[in-house]
Amino acid sequence: MEPAEGSHLDALAYLECAMGLLGSVLLKLVRSAYGRYASPRPACRVPARAAWALQELPSLAVPLWVCARTAAERLRHAPNRVLLAMFLVHYAQRSLIFPFLIRGGKPMPLYTCTLAFMFCVYNGYLQSRYLSQYAVYADDWVTDPRFLVGFCLWLIGMLINIHSDHILRNLRKPGETGYKIPRGGLFEYVTAANYFGEVVEWCGYALASWSIQGGAFAAFTFCILVSRAQQHHQWYLERFEDYPKFRKIIIPFLL
After folding, report:
1. Most confidently modeled range among 65-69, 135-139, 220-224, 243-247
2. How crowded is residue 16: how many other Cβ atoms within 10 Å of its Cβ?
């Protein structure tokens, strides 16, 4: 382990926070350009399933490469292994399962897919390098209240995210087109239940890891997904006169 690299990993984490804030501002100024917001103008696009698989895959592949190419000294300790497994389980689902459940999704602009791919490379390296080489935990960290609460939040958030995606996929019956108001689960309380689940998941991961790197990822996720959720919420209000006005944007009873 090189002390200098540890400082560099901290700097990369702070940069990730800054990217989240910048991305949040840009998303307020320039609307997302995929899915329901896709421009009708011709552009280079990637089929939805391929786009999601390709852009999420680095968060699974890069950590495996990082751990294989060097001696992952810290992974001899259970807390490090569990935390890295939490990260990998999410992205195994997002890159190897979720894309192939998509039903007729609209093609994604190549630049959007490319930006997501680059972020997953960046964050996959940051999280895995830190956990495999620099994160120091006591062997009983897995019984610490911060870890236990964080792990529970991570698991609950992932289940909310998966369940909410299931609801969205099944809004239309076979042969139907157009958009519908999501019903059921946490969609009864918020517009972006799937985003809420992901925010809870990574906040739990950040708490369980008790690290700048984990906190930076949670902060980035919150900044980006809140901005996207605000856009979705406004879209539903404008499109559906009967859209429930009591629904919050992303956090039940708060935001």
Report:
1. 220-224
2. 21
Rounded to the nearest integer, the mean pLDDT of the chain is 90
Give the contacts of 209 (CB within 8 A, at least 6 positions apart).
83, 131, 135, 150
pTM of the model: 0.91
**Exposure on the CB side of residue 55, measured as CA atoms within 13 A:** 20
CA distance 16 to 125: 12
Antiparallel, parallel or unpaired: β 45-46 and 108-109? antiparallel
CB-based contact 17:220 (threshold 8 Å): yes
Distance CA(179)–CA(10), nearest Å, equals 43
Distance between CA atoms of residues 114 and 229, nearest Å: 21
Cβ pair 131, 65 in contact under 8 A: no
CA distance 20 to 228: 12
The Cα 122–Cα 129 span in angstroms is: 11
- β-bridge partners, 108: 46
* 66-89: pLDDT as tens digits: 998 888 888 889 999 999 999 999
What are the sequence ranges of the domains in the chain? 1-239
10 Å CB burial of residue 105 (0-12, 13-18, 19+) is middle
Give the phi and the psi of residue 173 in degrees, each rounded to 5.
-80, 160
Contact 134, 6 (CB under 8 A): yes
